[in-house]
Amino acid sequence: MAASHVSTHVLDSATGRPAAGIAVVLESAAGTRLAAAVTDSDGRANGLGPERLEPGTYRLVFATGDYFGARGQETFFPEVGIVFRVAADAGHYHVPLLLSPFAYSTYRGS
């Protein structure tokens, strides 16, 4: 299987553990669904999308409400959407998500 241009890693900062079982969708700027994955036992979704993306704006949508609901936890964010820009020839994009029931943060990883 070819490597995807985008990957993610979700950590549940409230528990200090990887967040397994979170559905993640990669969308174009127009909202077209390009790929979907579910985080593995290490909180990673490595096979998310095509090997190459055209330069432009994309969005990762994380089903955080389902994740917390399955644990019987209330959350303020039923989903988290991260919009990011892909530049020409900028290499792989790793977009981690640090998550808790009432806050989240992200950054461009490596």
Automatic annotation (TrEMBL):
Keyword Hydrolase: yes
GO terms of molecular function: hydroxyisourate hydrolase activity
Substrates-to-products reaction catalysed: 5-hydroxyisourate + H2O = 5-hydroxy-2-oxo-4-ureido-2,5-dihydro-1H-imidazole-5-carboxylate + H(+)
Keywords for the protein's UniProt record, in alphabetical order: Hydrolase, Purine metabolism
CDD domains for the chain: TLP_HIUase
Family: Belongs to the transthyretin family. 5-hydroxyisourate hydrolase subfamily.
Role, per record: Catalyzes the hydrolysis of 5-hydroxyisourate (HIU) to 2-oxo-4-hydroxy-4-carboxy-5-ureidoimidazoline (OHCU).
NCBIfam families reported for this sequence: hdxy_isourate
Assembly information from the UniProt record: Homotetramer.
Name recorded for this polypeptide: 5-hydroxyisourate hydrolase
Origin organism lineage: Bacteria, Bacillati, Actinomycetota, Actinomycetes, Micrococcales
